[in-house]
TrEMBL record:
Residues 23-51 are annotated as: Disordered. The keyword Iron-sulfur does not apply. Keywords: Signal. It comes from the Bacteria. InterPro entries: SGNH_hydro_sf, Stig-like. This is MXAN_6577-like cysteine-rich protein. The keyword Signal applies. Residues 1-21 form the signal peptide. It comes from Nannocystis bainbridge.
């Protein structure tokens, strides 16, 4: 560290030359000129003090007949007749800047090591761009969800070296999720909902288990009795129900973890019932009791096998019956559903981990004779109300349907891989998941700008995988009864879409809709039904060759 120098210029130390008579007074200090020496002893030294050439006491040197400190004399810096430039001081025999108290010389300039981000605590010790130097320590401005650990901002919710707090490291191989180290060997995924959750009409396509994933001995649709063991997770046909999302979800998670040198074993079990609204599936119903029985059996069987077990999530595929019933409180129902599962699971397992809910938006309301539906917006609202517990995986309009409501076998497995992406991001990587949805919608004149939450930019308007229903699925409405038409839809940046209207709107309650309106009676899917063409550029590799881009959710949002 550089030597701190006092504010005054360095003092020139003058030698006390001996007098001719052998005694010294203030008036009898003398010299013999440039080459001579005084005849008396200097009063500042004892009889045995060392002297330099010319008779000056060390470490002084004689320059121009005077004893000087060449380490600090600006006129003789480092040697006689070596003056420093004007304004510079002599520091340890070298000309440099004379700095004031609390400062040091770094690169020829006076700096305060306490606050200078280029010399924080020591010369040339620079803080990262945008990081402040406070009390000689680089202190970045951390985001609200981050903590300052040492000189780095970390997220204690997912940082394996600072899990839940600074310097709290997870054991090797354990991820940090929700601020807790997850030491689990068997991860239980509960699946509920109506017919789409049980594989209604979906031909079986997953007939082998390539990893260690399991179901109960009674199969994926496990029920609540006879749960006496585990078998490899495959899909089975019972005469009307086949491929569920279980294999697609579990196997892609395992594949992605294997690709990075890890493993992730999932127990998947479904307990939904076709054609049933939330009221027939919630806590207190027989299907919910079957789910609780599956958790109870999971705890016991894992203990017998010596495996650390926890319920990690609930996957819901639901909404059609509540659409038909006109449920205006579906968002509140989803929040209660998740909360009930988490409370009951923790009571059975004693696990510290939360039990988040993953769900997809309903996309098939046109098959029920409706042009619009409230349910997709309610599903999005629930996720926004509890972004730490409820996650919208995405819509389903880009998937293949067998009858306009139920997915093909490939479609069910494909949907399962979408669940896998969200599950892995939240429960393995410990990162937030947000669907492709608007962050803000603003208007200036006739131009409406929609800024999106995009996990993998840039945005793309894709007419190959989904046919264009008109304006790429976007609509503009207001209360005038005659809102201006959309004249153009264009990408204005990697996360931005701009709608140019035919005229500046004058009505109130201005809103932008996307994939929100369809033709009553037509099938859902990528060429019919309520749909849109906006997606991101996610390059996650499917195990089965599916594209796994994140498609924009159904929405109906106000212009701010």
């Amino acid at each position: 560290m550089p030597v701190r120098v006092r504010p005054s210029l360095v003092l020139v130390l003058l030698c006390a030359c001996p007098s001719a008579a052998g005694t010294t007074t203030e008036d009898t200090v003398a010299s013999t000129g440039s080459g001579g020496a005084a005849t008396g002893e200097p009063t500042s030294t004892g009889p045995d003090a060392p002297t330099t050439a010319g008779g000056c006491p060390a470490p002084l040197a004689e320059c121009d007949g005077a004893c000087v400190d060449v380490a600090h004399d600006p006129a003789h810096c480092g040697g006689c007749d070596s003056p420093c430039d004007a304004g510079l001081a002599c520091l340890e025999g070298q000309c440099g800047v004379a700095c004031g108290p609390g400062t040091a010389t770094c690169d020829g300039a006076c700096v305060d090591l306490e606050v200078d981000p280029s010399h924080c605590g020591a010369c040339d010790r620079a803080c990262d761009p945008g990081v402040a130097c406070v009390a000689a320590t680089c202190v970045p401005g951390c985001a609200p969800e981050q903590a300052l650990c040492g000189e780095a901002c970390v997220d204690p919710g997912n940082d394996e070296a600072h899990c839940g707090g600074c310097d709290t490291a997870c054991p090797s191989g354990q991820p940090c999720v929700y601020g807790q180290c997850v030491g689990v060997g068997l991860h239980h995924l509960l699946i509920s909902g109506q017919s789409l959750s049980t594989g209604s009409g979906s031909v079986v396509v997953s007939v082998e288990q390539p990893f260690a994933n399991v179901s109960f001995n009674t199969g994926v649709r496990a029920g609540g009795v006879g749960l006496t063991g585990f078998i490899p997770l495959i899909e089975t046909w019972n005469g009307g129900e086949g491929e569920t999302i279980a294999s697609g979800a579990a196997n892609l998670v395992s594949q992605l973890e294997q690709d990075r040198g890890g493993s992730h074993k999932i127990l998947a079990s479904a307990h939904g019932v076709g054609g049933q609204p939330y009221g027939a599936l919630k806590k207190g119903t027989a299907p919910y009791a079957n789910g609780v029985a599956q958790v109870t059996a999971g705890v016991a069987l894992a203990a017998m096998a010596g495996e650390a077990y926890a319920v990690r999530a609930v996957a819901i595929v639901h909404g059609e019956s509540d659409h038909l019933g006109g449920n205006l409180a579906y968002a509140e129902d989803l929040l209660a559903w998740q909360s009930d599962y988490e409370a009951d699971v923790k009571a059975i397992t004693a696990q510290p981990y939360p039990v988040p809910m993953f769900l997809c938006q309903m996309s098939s309301w046109t098959m029920y004779g409706s042009s619009v539906s409230r349910i997709p917006g309610e599903q999005l609202a629930a996720a926004r109300a509890r972004p730490d517990r409820i996650f919208v995986v995405g819509p389903k309009y880009m998937l293949p349907y067998v009858d306009g409501v139920h997915l093909t076998g490939e479609g069910s497995r494909w949907l399962g891989e979408y669940y896998a992406k969200a599950y892995r991001r939240v429960l393995v990587e410990g990162l937030p998941w947000r669907p492709l949805a608007p962050r803000s919608i603003t208007r200036e004149g006739a131009v409406v700008t929609v800024e999106f939450e995009v996990l993998t930019p840039p945005l793309v308007l894709d007419e190959l995988l989904v046919s264009n229903p008109g304006n790429y699925g976007f609509e503009f409405t207001d209360s005038s009864g005659a809102p201006p038409a959309i004249a153009a839809v264009a990408l204005a940046g990697p996360t931005t879409v701009q709608l140019t209207l035919a005229a500046e709107p004058v009505g109130g309650n201005q809103r932008v809709r996307y994939a929100a309106t369809g033709v009553p009676g037509v099938s859902a899917g990528p060429t019919t039904g309520a749909r849109g063409n906006l997606r991101d550029s996610d390059a996650t590799v499917s195990r089965h060759g599916y594209s796994l881009f994140n498609w924009a959710v159904h929405f109906d949002e106000p212009v701010q």
